[in-house]
């Protein structure tokens, strides 16, 4: 049967999700094919209508639909509501539920793969787009002590601070320059890049938001950019002798969380990891 489970976006050709999700379906004995749907924004409504059938299971949602899909579906999880973006929809009793597993996937990748526990830690986050919101939400849910938010456009960081800070966890926006970073970066437990700096094919493929002099060897680095796997940002952590995590694991774990919720079962993480490794 077709049109039951897959990933949609535009463009979608580059998506690696079908490879590791198909490995999961096969391992679990699920006969569905995890499809790749190229959905032009003008066709989004039509595509969502086609999901309104009993056999539909779930769809992973990627750019540019993560926000536009919200008015077209029936319910939102708490994370999707707070973050304002959906990266999975599931068929729950013939209603389309939008969820955000970028946040929980990020936290699972940190804790399960890299053994970094965010509780009571200080985090410095670069970037103030959708990925930043998901990561900040995940960190707050994991009881971090404090979040420093550094973005080129300071006003955007301020908006996130207003919207996502809680009584327990304050988000402090700071200016994106060396002097300001020098006051915070060397003293944080984890630094996360959510900007497109360093991304192959992006606007600044050779740039890093921070360089090694400001990085302590005790600070953990994490880049959500996974192409290339070792980004300019990660190279600065290597230079400082610090440990780091790479963005492919966030991609994997958002998918692990998604397929687990879609099928109500544990995902075969090792099988999915192997399928992803075979690609790179
Ligand atoms: P996403 O939703 O995937 O997180 P986005 O909304 O396009 O992506 O956000 C991209 C992030 O990269 C933003 O924080 C952007 O900074 P601005 O808010 O100031 O635009 C950041 N970014 C992109 N190019 C940058 C550059 N050359 N220097 C600094 N930050 C940059």
Please describe the structure with a list of short key phrases separated by commas or semicolons.
six-stranded parallel β-sheet, 10 helices, globular, alpha/beta, six-stranded mixed β-sheet, 36% helix, 18% strand, 12 strands, binds 2'-monophosphoadenosine-5'-diphosphate, 280 residues
The averaged pLDDT comes out at 97
Low-confidence stretches: none
Question: By helix and strand content, what is the structural category?
Answer: alpha/beta
Helix content percent band: 25-40%
Morphology: globular
Strand line-up in the sheet with most strands: 2-1-3-5-6-4
Strand content: 15-25%
What series of H and E elements makes up the topology? EHEHEEHEEHEHEHEHEEHEHH
Could you tell me the radius of gyration in angstroms? 19 Å
How many helices? The count is 10
**Biggest sheet details:** 6 strands, mixed
Small molecules bound: 2'-monophosphoadenosine-5'-diphosphate
- Care to count the β-strands? 12
First CA to last CA: what distance?
30 Å
């Amino acid at each position: 049967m077709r049109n039951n489970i897959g990933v949609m976006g535009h463009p979608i050709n580059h998506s690696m999700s079908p490879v590791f999700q198909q490995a999961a379906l096969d391992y679990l004995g699920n006969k569905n094919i995890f499809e790749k749907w190229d959905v032009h924004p003008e066709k989004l409504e039509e595509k969502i209508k086609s999901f309104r059938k009993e056999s539909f299971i779930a769809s992973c949602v990627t750019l540019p639909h993560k926000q536009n899909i919200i008015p077209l579906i029936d319910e939102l999880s708490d994370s999707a509501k707070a973050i304002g973006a959906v990266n999975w929809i599931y068929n729950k009793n013939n209603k389309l539920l939008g969820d955000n597993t970028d946040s929980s996937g990020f936290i699972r990748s940190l804790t399960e793969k890299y053994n970094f526990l965010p509780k009571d830690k200080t985090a410095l986050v670069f970037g103030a787009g959708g990925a930043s919101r998901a990561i900040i939400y995940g960190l707050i849910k994991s009881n971090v002590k404090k979040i420093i938010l550094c973005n080129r456009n300071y006003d955007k960081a301020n908006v996130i601070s207003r919207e996502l800070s809680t009584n327990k966890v304050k988000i402090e926006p700071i200016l994106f320059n060396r002097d300001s970073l020098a006051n915070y970066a060397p003293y944080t437990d984890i630094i996360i890049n959510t900007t497109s700096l360093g991304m192959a094919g992006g606007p600044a493929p050779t740039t890093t938001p921070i360089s090694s002099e400001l990085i302590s060897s005790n600070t953990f680095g994490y880049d959500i950019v996974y192409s290339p796997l070792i980004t300019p940002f990660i190279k600065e952590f290597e230079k400082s002798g610090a440990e780091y995590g790479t963005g492919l694991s966030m991609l994997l774990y958002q998918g692990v969380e998604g397929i687990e919720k879609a099928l109500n079962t544990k995902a075969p993480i090792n099988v999915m990891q192997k399928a992803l490794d075979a690609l790179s």
